[in-house]
Specification:
Length: about 240
């Protein structure tokens, strides 16, 4: 079974990306903000789901969780070594990443804690003042719209009941920005990680201090537990 280029961008199916007014807190959480060195306050960052395991996508493909996890770990190693890897604007029809077409650097990949089959990413839009592709991506974000994202890889598929099951020879190459991702809801939105990090750390620090105070109060353990749970509910969890 020969390997082919697997790009997750439905051919002949275009869907406009609509602005979403969902609060920022839905898209940013504490586990998503530990970024590599070199990402500063002026970095233009976007975040959101990029792949989904064990679910049929718009291209009638299913990626098994174990397969995606294996490839994610490889990409995480690259991020750990190099600080990130590059993605293009729209899918090319080749496996290599062309430097003249890259608007983003993928800075972080992880599985979502609640939706365990959803892979999330944080990407940095490169300098839009000197990079035309990054300028296009930035103009979309500046207009308040999300950016679609789609995986690109090499591998073979096996057909089962008109569904293509991606096989063990799959290799995840990168993620590219697209207008119509085949993974449902694979849309990235802008956020300010550094400011959010600072606020979360302050809130968690206050939370910890108050909990220590509660331990010294003359209350039943059940009442102390209720107070601590209430404190957790009130603490801002971005």
């Amino acid at each position: 079974m020969s390997r082919i280029l697997l790009i997750e961008h439905p051919i002949g199916n275009t869907t406009s990306i609509k602005s979403n007014k969902t609060p920022l807190s839905k898209f940013v959480n504490e586990s998503a903000i530990r970024l590599p060195e070199g990402v500063g306050d002026d970095s233009i960052l976007i975040r959101g789901p990029v792949q989904r395991a064990n679910v049929e996508n718009k291209n009638n493909r299913i990626y098994p969780k174990a397969l995606l996890n294996r490839e994610m770990l490889k990409l995480q190693e690259i991020i750990g070594t190099n600080g990130g890897f590059l993605g293009e604007l729209d899918h090319p029809d080749i496996a290599t990443v062309g430097l003249q077409r890259v608007p983003i650097a993928v800075r972080k990949l992880w599985w979502d804690d609640k939706n365990i089959n959803e892979m999330y990413a944080i990407c940095e839009i490169l300098d839009p003042t000197i990079n035309p592709q990054a300028g296009i991506a930035y103009s979309i974000i500046k207009a308040g719209l999300p950016l679609g994202i789609s995986s690109r890889g090499l591998g073979s598929v096996e057909q089962k009941n008109n569904i293509s099951i991606v096989q063990e020879d799959f290799e995840m190459l990168t993620f590219d920005l697209v207008s119509d991702p085949s993974t449902h809801g694979a849309l990235l939105r802008h956020f300010r990680a550094n400011k959010i990090t600072e606020n979360i750390e302050k809130a968690l620090d206050v939370n910890s201090q108050v909990k220590k105070e509660i331990n010294g109060w003359h209350l039943a353990n059940s009442e102390k537990k209720k107070l601590k749970n209430l404190l957790d509910d009130l603490t801002i969890k971005w």
